[in-house]
Amino acid sequence: QVQLVESGGGLVQPGGSLRLSCAASGFTFSTYLMSWYRQVPGKERELVALITSAHLPTYSASVKGRFAISRDDYEKMIYLQMNSLKPEDTAVYYCHAALPGWGQIYWGQGIQVNVSS
């Protein structure tokens, strides 16, 4: 079965770093567009970063220069390295997989990131 399992979240102080991981299984990972989204209560889920099957990344303006998305197609993993964290980065972060043209879309269960002193 298809699975996306996030890990690496938790509590960190402002200015600190975390690395989120997402382990994928049950689909042809290397062909999918992979993304990280985040959501806070009362707000819509927003795109944080994406990385194409050609390993080309794109970032939202709010995290550009601080976060880095990467993927390992052999291990079927994606990562989100988060540096210089701010309180406004606090959210539930979701791993996302999509295959444009085929209508395939998968979500992880989400993982909490809290940035607070």
Shape: globular
Report the C-alpha radius of gyration, rounded.
Answer: 14 Å
Number of strands: 11
- Number of helical segments with 4 or more residues: 0
Residues in helices, as a percent range: under 10%
Oligomeric state of the chains in view: single chain
How would you state the average pLDDT, rounded?
97
Let me know the largest β-sheet. 7 strands, mixed
The class by helix and strand makeup works out as mainly beta
Termini separation (Å)? 40 Å
Strand composition percent: over 45%
Q: Can you tell me the residue ranges where pLDDT is under 50 for at least 5 consecutive residues?
A: none
- Please provide the ordered H/E string of secondary-structure elements: EEEEEEEEEEE
Layout: helices, strands, pairs:
Blueprint: E1 3-7, E2 10-12, E3 18-25, E4 33-39, E5 46-51, E6 57-59, E7 67-72, E8 77-82, E9 91-99, E10 104-107, E11 111-115
Parallel strand pairs: 2-11
Antiparallel strand pairs: 1-3, 3-8, 4-5, 4-9, 5-6, 7-8, 9-10, 9-11
Characterise this structure.
- By secondary structure, this protein is an all-beta fold.
- The chain has no helices and eleven strands.
- The strands form two sheets. Strands 2, 4, 5, 6, 9, 10 and 11 form a seven-stranded mixed β-sheet that branches.
Summary keywords:
four-stranded antiparallel sheet; 11 strands; single chain; mainly beta; 117 residues; seven-stranded mixed sheet; 0% helix
Summarize the structure.
The protein has 117 residues and is mainly β. Helices cover 0% and strands 53% of the residues. It has no helices and eleven strands.
